[in-house]
Amino acid sequence: MTHSMNSRRQFLTQCGLTAGATAFAFTNPTTAAQPPARNGKSHMKLSLAAYSFNKFLPNRGTAEQLAAAKMKLEDFIQFCADQNLDGTELTSYYFPKEFSQSYLIAIKEQTFRLGLDVSGTAIGNDFCKPAGEEWDKQIKLTREWIDHSATMGAPVIRIFAGNVPKGDTEAAAFERCVAGINKSLEYAAEKGVFLALENHGGITGTAEQLLKIVKAVSPSPWFGVNLDGGNFRSENVYAELEQIAPYAINAQVKVSVTPNGKKEPADLGRVIEILRKANYRGYVVLEYEEADPYGEIPKVLADLRKLIHG
What we know:
single chain
């Protein structure tokens, strides 16, 4: 027991996050992350997440798998251009299992030539992993994708908090998560890449849980929230979205919501209005998770354009 407590204390000390520092962050508002400064007027642009074609894109595919795939990342980029979008979100899962710097440069060339911003990327990190080798791997992954994002000109990475490991406590997982974000933010700030924490279940399953993390993270202009319109599962998902919208530096919408675990069509107009009232300025990224993305995505994008631009 004593050894376990010493190990935990040593871990937090190494990460620059002691229990006292955490408590101070909650009681002193000057140390907590604040909503990003805006100009009082909302402005939104449209992008599409590569996850929308999860059925077709190979997940970290080998050269052989890429050759046989129904869709490659380059094809997805072309699809975004064909839809006359402003941006394309290049989720990390669909990059080849192994790739070089020249591959990233080629992606940057293609997107720019097609008039697209790389609106962001996303990684499947888990900062709740146990301290030691597993947690270190999450920091390494995040650092690698900060570099990749900087090369491609992607301004923001969607990051996850993670899930409480079996036999652990949420309080301990919370501390590791905050430490992981803080440690990653130091490098992200050097490279000019934002980190956006997504409401993605686990210890960010509710707005209260997410904001507890946000307010414990060391203040940084390079940190904020990725508002995902379809991930909350409480009774009133829209009320939860209203709570996190002021902190959003990136936003996603889905065509479905799941209040109390029951799936139903999303009120996209209500989600956009929540962002508008928060004076959100930035990308609205459609993440389509239903059947027939080729046939349905153009229709959803048309609806979103009307909602955003009138």
